[in-house]
Structure formats: C-alpha cells, structure tokens
Amino acid sequence: MATTSLDLAKVRNIGIMAHIDAGKTTTTERILYYTGVSYKIGEVHDGAATMDWMAQEQERGITITSAATTCHWPLDNVDHTINIIDTPGHVDFTVEVERSLRVLDGAVTVFDGVAGVEPQSETVWRQADRYGVPRICFVNKLDRTGAEFHRCVDMIVNRLNAQPLVMQLPIGAEADFQGVVDLVQMKALVWSAETKLGEAYDVVDIPDTHTEAAAEWRGKLLEAVAENDDEMMELYLEGQEPSQEQLMAAIRRVTLASTGAEGTTTVTPVFCGTAFKNKGVQPLLDAVVRYLPSPLDVEAVEGHAVNNSEEVITRKPADEEPLSALAFKIMSDPHLGKLTFVRVYSGRLESGTQVLNSVKGRKERIGKIYRMHANKREEIESVGAGDIIAVMGLKQTTTGETLCDPAKPVILESMEFPAPVIEVA
Ligand code: GDP
How many angstroms is it from 27 CA to the middle of ligand 1? Predict the structure, then answer.
C-alpha cells in the first residue's frame, strides 16, 4: 500500500467555478479524461483501455461524484497531482460553499463565451475574493454562434473589476474555431476540425492572419505583467524581451500575489477554447500547474488553542509539523459507506492511529484512507501535509471540525458567515 509523501511543490488543490451552464461539468469531465489518458494508476498506459473507460464513463454520465478527485498531469515531463475539490453548484454563501473554498488553494473560473460574465460568475468571483483564492479564467464555448472572446475579456474588466492577462487569442470563430495563439510561446496551438477526446494538438507558427494581433496582445501582456512585477518592470524599462521561462515565472508570481482580497484588483491569466469540442483543455491543465499555487505557496494555516480562542497557533504545510486537518465534507459512498473528506494542513494523517477532534474534545480512530480518482479509489496508509483524501470510520466528526495531534491540539479557524450578497442582475 502506498505511503504517499508528495512533493508539495507538485500538488495543486483547485476548484472549478462557474455560472450554471457555462460548462463547469464538461470542463471537469474533460480534465478527468485527459488526465486519465496521460496517467493510470498501477496500469501500463494503454490508450485503448483508457478510451473504453472514457466511453463507459460517458455512457453512465459519471463525472465528479466525489467531494475531491485526484488526477495527475505531466508538465514538461514532470508528474503533478491535481486534487479537484467539488465546489457546490449553488452560489449562495452557504457553509458548504465556504468549506470547499476554504480547502482549495486556487481556482479555474469558467465563462460562457457567448454570455460572458453572468450574475453567478460575479457571485463565485466575490466568494473567491473573500477567501483570497488566486485564479485563472477559461472562456469556454468559443465554438458557439455568437461567442466572442474579447467581449468576455472586457466584461472581466468591467463587471469583475479584475485585470485580465490575455494569454491566448482564438484562431477562427464559432463553428470554425480551430485553436489559439499562445502569447507566451508565440506559437499557434491548433486542433483538427473534429477533435476526438484525448487528441493532441499541433504547435505551429502563428498564421499570417494573426501575426499583427499576436504582436499587439503580446505587448499588452508584457506591459500588464511588468506593471505588477518589479523584475519584469526592470526588463521592460530596459527594452529587453523576457525569456519564456522568465515570463512564465513572472505570470506565476503575479497570479499568486493577486487574490482580490480586501478590495484589491485580481490579476488573472485568461485562456480560451471549447471543452465540449475538446479544444483548449490541455493548455488549461498546463496553466493550472504553471500558474496556480501549490500548498507551499499558501500562508501557514492559522488556528487557535483549545481553551483560549485568543491564542493564535500557526501550522506550516510540512509533514514534520504536528497534525492539523479539517473535515470539510461527509459523503456516503455506495461501496464504502460513510466517508469524511479531509484536508491535511500540517503533519501526517495515518490509518489506524488515534487523533483528537479538538472541537468536540473526543478521540477518533482513523480507519482506512482513500485517494479518490475518477475511475477508482486507491487505499493509502498515510497522507502528508497539503493533501486531500477521504477517511473511513470517523464516528464523531462532522464537517468544519479539526482533527489534530492529541499532544498538540489546535482548532483551525472557524468559519464566519458573511452578510448575504444581493445579486445584481
Ligand atoms: P455547468 O452547468 O456549468 O456544469 O455546464 P455543463 O458543462 O453541464 O454545460 C451546459 C451545456 O453546455 C451542456 O449542454 C453542454 O454540453 C454544453 N457545453 C459545455 N461546453 C460547451 C462548449 O464548449 N461548446 C458548446 N457548444 N457547448 C458546450
């Protein structure tokens, strides 16, 4: 059985947020398919078998049935673990939404390329602001009649008061949407007309029709990044072109630093495509790994002492720290029964050990621990800081409660309910 000690720098805990119908489900499904193609646990990669599985999944209409689903994505041949935390479909400030936002480190916001920024897009945006969640945007449905990438970008400015970093330009529109100009690589990524699930794209030179726009938008991108990053500003003032690595590193810094918290502007890289037609999802996955935070990029979690809510205790995201973990969702699995989904903030959580539920003041025995994948679950012996898993056998613990080392108790910050936001249509 695996005792996973993940390299935290290669972990992304993300949510996918959207107005209803924008394509959150389709985008999530495609992410699971593409990551399933590239990685299968304990099995030799077999394209045919994977496609079979995908066909089956599609038939059954199974997408994310789990509060957290783990998948893997190789970026530059390095494997990364992506935990997708299901953010509930409803958009009011319920404790459930709060908890899912609490345990993720970054988010992908999906927009409908026709409708652009919709009322619920605004609501989820404000929720992410409130929790200081760095995010990237995906303008979806560019194959649809009436879709307009730049209108959506303008709405991100005007309705969300954000500063979009346009990372891609669409090539072709509506039924003729072919791919994107990548403004970092300065290459075109194109898909075949009837792209099949899992099909790779071609990286080609930017077509003549798009060279002028590409130069213009590349200029805007460099300027916007420089405006928000000292290192890039120096290069910019010296009239130097950054290398691809320098530019990507700067975009990462800018994205991580910009969380929209306390009324600040969110700087957000914007990507585009059509999840349904299988165009644009792989570059989006690259972007998740490239630009969204790892658990190490996030501030140490804060909690307070059990008998003194004034005494602040911080725990760093490291296996060597005392255990602190938050139960954020309880689900009933048809095969396993009651599962408690837990984010481990510090220390290690081990199957068979006793931990303290510091809110209730009761000991709990950790039963089996599972990592939930789209097509299977994987039993693991223990799990380290920064990770998200499901635990079987917790009897007393309800959502929002802290599990910790009995010798070093802590209660992770309790959630406050903000005033409800009145939606402006
Ligand atoms: P959700 O409510 O945000 O989860 O949206 P869904 O993923 O369920 O998508 C809503 C509808 O839009 C479904 O009928 C999808 O098939 C369709 N859809 C999603 N993405 C695209 C896309 O890229 N292009 C087109 N044409 N339709 C899409």
Answer: 8
Distance 277 CA to ligand 1 centre (A): 10
Whether the CB of 87 sits within 6 Å of ligand 1: no
> CB of 259 within 8 A of CB of 132?
yes
Q: What is the dihedral of CA 87, 90, 92, 97, to 10 degrees?
A: -20
Question: For residues 242 and 185, is the Cβ–Cβ distance under 8 A?
Answer: no
Task: Kindly provide the b/e burial profile for residues 57-72, where b requires at least 16 CB atoms within 10 angstroms of the residue's own CB.
Answer: beeeeebbebbbbbbb
**What tokens does 17 get?**
């947020």
- pTM given for the model: 0.91
Which residues belong to the annotated binding site for GTP?
Answer: 18-25, 86-90, 140-143
Tens-digit pLDDT profile for residues 256-309: 999 888 778 899 999 999 999 999 999 999 999 999 999 999 888 999 999 888
The SS3 of residue 30 is: helix
pLDDT, tens only, 18-76: 998 999 999 998 998 888 765 544 343 444 444 455 555 554 444 456 889 999 999 99
ipTM > 0.90? yes
Q: How far is CA 415 from CA 159, 345, 356, 390, in A?
A: 28, 16, 20, 21
